[in-house]
Specification:
The complex is a heterodimer.
Chain A (H helix, E strand, L loop, with lengths): L1 H7 L19 H4 L4 E2 L6 E4 L9 E2 L6 E2 L4 E4 L8 E2 L4 E10 L7 E9 L19 H10 L12 H5 L9 E6 L8 H24 L3 E7 L3 H9 L2 E2 L2 E8 L8 H9 L14 E5 H13 L5 E7 L7 E6 L4 H7 L9 E4 L6 E2 L13 E5 L1 H4 L12 H5 L6 H9 L3 H6 L10 H5 L6 H67 L8
Helix pairs in contact in A: 3-5, 5-6, 5-8, 12-15
Chain B lengths: L17 H49 L3 H5 L3 H11 L7 H16 L12 H12 L19 H9 L13 H10 L4 H6 L4 H6 L11 H13 L6 H20 L7 H5 L2 H10 L10 H21 L6 H18 L16 H6 L3
Classes of the chains: A alpha/beta, B mainly alpha.
EC number (chain B): 7.-.-.-
Subcellular location (chain B): Cell inner membrane
Organism (chain B): Alloyangia pacifica
Chain lengths: 509, 360
């Protein structure tokens, strides 16, 4: 094994990624605990939008009885995802409930009261991926409502259908899990490596690629060795690459750079290089959906932080309230300074413990003040730490200065829109300046400005088109009038000529 | 539970902050300073204390005048560090008002007038040093031989030296090694003869000679600087660029004409060079932010130091070299930028074919 892990770190097989930071990972809090099941919660709340794209269309109404795995929300449009009942029970409301988002705004949600029997409805029909066409596999993944489970929640089937558009050759399975605290993918690989490998094989078949690379950070040797034991998925060989523990190694484009040396051009997709990146947990969900017809109704969530009495990795139903998850892990120990969904670098703070977890929730963290190291913001001292840390080659302090001066176009000129909001700059800033906060604000403002500008231009264009149309109409009328006038004049002249030619005759009409 | 602050990530932070950084720099300066204080005795201790106290007082006064919060800024350690750096460059037995004046120039004119922490264009300690060198050429060039804390003047004698006014001691008027060499060269003596009449390279490196309060021991400054590098507070590139460019230029000149140029090791063994390379040129506020920019900046400082030492009329070139390069920093930062991920240096997206061609 040692021989393998050394060869995995050989510089010749890896490429340097600029910048990044090395936060304390604190994965030891939950890395040792196996994935556990939890009791059915009293209520389950399934938001209709848990993915990037359009919200699903609800198929049930209040009072309906549903079975586990039953379709309760249908994807609307090409980029959307199906929703399934996580357990059997009664729909008690199809209404609005606070979103698992910092805003806490009410969003359309189906609320379900489990009946406690957890009775499966009919599963999706069996599919033998070895015999199935790639389209069939992608369709099954779409049917099962699978989205990217690393947090981005992009519908997985859309990415599996890129086969026709780009010449693909490699599938990268992202199990880097570079966010501190999170251990759900680590545990999944350790305990279900065979299933993840199979899922990866199924995805490779759907994509039509022959090369599969699983990328694991060097602080998860057990996960890497488990994947090496199961290095064949559907007959496709699986390479395991161990990358240095460095945040944000899990960022799609940076991972592609680290593993293949290819740098994705700005504003392009990795697919244009022939590489598709999927999360390891997504592969596991694909395995369940294709082999067993199980839609995506549960996921592994890491519940951790010093504010949690008993940190653990839990397989929880989608829609489980955060409060139930925390209660399962022994409750809160003391008042947490921060309560987060996701990791500490890019996760979302939440205000309400009753919000549900969704398909993209990989962690529930309760951080104590001793973990956050928060202190008051000071002026920038130009130390350049942010420039050294930025994995995108930006100058965050300069972006911040321009945004503070309300020079958004200036900020865009020096690369604001190339920022991936990974948080390295804010993390390292000795003056504790909330850089990413400012960037997100500026990106929003810029998008709004551009939308307004676009709208204005469009209005202007339409108005111009209309006046041109009216002008053309008037012109046509004038022309017709002139033509008629000319005709009349010609006729008159002809008549006059005729009358002159036969002075004694009557005018013939 | 209380409502959390709605904010973008990251939701936790590295251990580093401004006060810790400043304290780390002061700790790394401590060995060289302590050695200087020991060598030059109680007058040096008094001058050091007066300068630091004055820096802190001027900082607080400026903050009050500017209407800014006093506590967070006065305790961030930056004023103390500036005062410390000013004190290190003073002649150890200078009267108290030289230190106070230096602290005033550094804190008020060099830093607070520009808007306080992080806003100054020029290194405050070097502004003070340059100003004192020009305005007070006599007190700024009166040196004493190192005597040690015990053999030197006692406390009452020291109080008289620092606060009593007037040099009541045997001042050596030219202590700066390189200044001495220049004046001797001007007098027409050949280089080997001058070198043999001076403190040995060994004594210079260890600091067993007359000089500024904290600049005598190049070795201790080097050790402190390497500690800063290992703590990742400074990048090694800046000191390497400063020392490298001095070494290359002086080495080349010396090889061409050993009769008229000082050997490169004499430049490097000077404490002022080491202090500049590790503690002055690496000042965050006034240096460029990128690695390449820092290399250019450091090389520029090194070259200017050598030029001023060889052809300038001042015995020491560090302050002027740093100030000149400070003025170039905004220019360097504008043109020397990192390449944005996925883009070419000119800001266009990378061509697809080219990046696909890199396929291993």
């Amino acid at each position: 094994m040692i021989r393998f892990s050394l060869s995995g770190l050989k510089p010749s097989t890896l490429f340097r990624v600029r910048g990044g930071v090395h936060p304390e990972t604190r994965k030891f809090l939950s890395a040792g605990s196996a994935i556990e099941a939890m009791a059915l919660p009293a209520l389950i709340r399934v938001p209709l939008q848990q993915h990037i794209g359009a919200p699903a269309e609800p198929l049930v109404k209040q009072g309906d009885l549903v079975l586990k795995g039953q379709l309760i929300g249908r994807a609307r449009g090409p980029v959307s995802a199906n929703l399934h009942a996580p357990t059997s029970g009664k729909v008690i409301a199809v209404g609005h409930f606070p979103a698992p988002h910092p805003s806490g705004l009410p969003v359309p949600t189906i609320t379900l009261r489990p009946d406690g029997e957890d009775r499966w409805g009919p599963r999706l029909p069996r599919l033998r991926p070895e015999d199935a066409a790639p389209e069939e596999i992608a369709a099954r993944v779409a049917e099962a409502g699978i989205v990217g489970m690393g947090g981005a929640t992009f519908p997985a089937a859309v990415k599996l259908n890129l086969r026709g558009k780009y010449p693909l050759h490699t599938l990268i399975l992202n199990a880097a899990e570079c966010e501190p605290y999170l251990t759900c993918d680590d545990r999944l690989l350790r305990e279900h490596a065979e299933e993840v490998a199979d899922g990866a094989g199924i995805m490779a078949r759907a994509l039509g690629v022959a090369r599969i690379i699983v990328v694991v950070e060097s602080n998860k040797p057990e996960a890497a060795s488990a994947m090496r034991r199961h290095n064949l998925g559907m007959g496709y060989p699986i390479e395991v690459k161990v990358v240095p523990t460095q945040y944000p190694m899990g960022s799609e484009k940076h991972m592609v750079k680290a593993v293949t040396g290819q740098e994705t051009p700005a504003r392009a997709l990795t697919a244009e290089l022939g590489i598709v990146v999927h999360n390891a947990a997504t592969a596991h969900a694909v395995h369940l959906a294709v082999r067993y017809g199980e839609p995506l109704i549960s996921r592994v969530v890491t519940v951790s932080g010093r504010g949690i009495a008993r940190p653990a990795n839990v397989r929880a139903l989608i829609g489980t309230p955060v409060a139930d998850l925390i209660a399962h892990c022994g409750g809160l120990s003391g008042e947490p300074e921060k309560l987060l969904l996701g990791g500490p670098m890019m996760g979302q703070p939440i205000a309400n413990l009753r919000v549900p977890i969704v398909k993209g929730t990989n962690g529930v963290l309760a951080l104590s003040p001793s973990e956050t190291h928060r202190s008051a913001a000071m002026p920038c001292i130009r130390c350049g730490s942010c420039v050294q840390a930025c994995p995108c080659g930006l100058t965050p302090f300069e972006l911040n200065a321009r945004i503070q001066a309300d020079d958004l176009e200036g900020a865009a000129e020096v690369g604001l829109l190339d920022c991936v909001s990974c948080g390295c700059c804010s993390f390292i800033c000795p003056s504790n300046i909330a850089l990413v906060q400012g960037f997100n604000f500026a990106k929003g403002r810029l998008a709004e400005k551009q939308a307004r500008k676009h709208q204005q231009e469009e209005t202007k264009r339409l108005a111009a088109a209309r006046s041109a149309r009216e002008e053309a109409l008037a012109e046509a009328k004038r022309a017709a009038m002139a033509k008629r006038k000319a005709e009349m004049a010609a006729k008159k002249a002809r008549e006059a000529a005729e009358a002159a030619a036969q002075p004694d005759g009557e005018v013939v009409k | 539970m209380k409502l959390p602050q709605v904010a973008s990530g990251p939701h936790f932070h590295s251990m580093f902050n401004v006060p810790r950084t400043m304290v780390a720099v002061m700790v790394c300066l401590a060995p060289a300073t302590g050695f200087g204080l020991y060598q030059f005795g109680w007058p040096a201790v008094l001058l050091f204390a007066v300068t630091l106290a004055a820096a802190l007082i001027f900082e607080v006064l400026s903050l009050i005048v500017a209407g800014r919060p006093v506590l967070p800024f006065a305790t961030d350690g930056s004023a103390l560090l500036t005062g410390w750096l000013v004190a290190m460059t003073l002649p150890p037995w200078a009267p108290w008002w030289v230190g106070v004046l230096g602290a005033f120039v550094a804190i008020v004119i060099g830093k607070q007038v520009f808007g306080g922490l992080g806003q100054n264009l020029f290194n405050p300690a070097m502004v003070a040093r340059a100003m004192l060198l020009i305005a007070l050429p006599v007190p700024m060039t009166q040196w004493v031989a190192p005597m040690g804390l015990k053999d030197g003047p006692g406390i009452s004698e020291a109080l008289r030296i620092t606060f009593g006014g007037g040099p009541g001691y045997d001042a050596m008027s030219s202590a700066s090694v390189l200044g001495h060499v220049q004046s001797q060269l001007d007098a027409g003596r050949p280089m080997p003869e001058i070198l043999s009449s001076m403190a040995s390279l060994h004594d210079q490196f260890f600091g067993l000679m007359a000089g500024s309060l904290g600049e005598t021991s190049a070795l201790l400054l080097l050790i402190g600087g390497l500690c800063l590098v290992s703590l990742r507070i400074i990048q090694i590139v800046t000191p390497l660029a400063v020392l490298g460019s001095i070494f290359l230029l002086s080495g080349a000149a010396w090889l061409i004409d050993p009769e008229h140029f000082v050997p490169p090791l004499f430049h490097l063994a000077s404490g002022a060079t080491m202090l500049c390379a590790f503690f002055i040129a690496t000042d965050y506020v006034t240096a460029p932010v990128t690695t390449a920019g820092r290399a250019i900046y450091g090389a520029g400082i090194g070259a200017l130091i050598w030029v001023i030492r060889v052809w300038g009329s001042f015995p020491e070139g560090v302050a002027f070299a740093v100030l000149l390069m400070n003025a170039v920093t905004p220019l360097i930062d504008t043109y020397v930028r990192p390449r944005i991920f996925g883009r070419t240096r000119s800001g266009k997206p990378l061509p697809l074919a080219a990046s696909a061609g890199e396929k291993p």
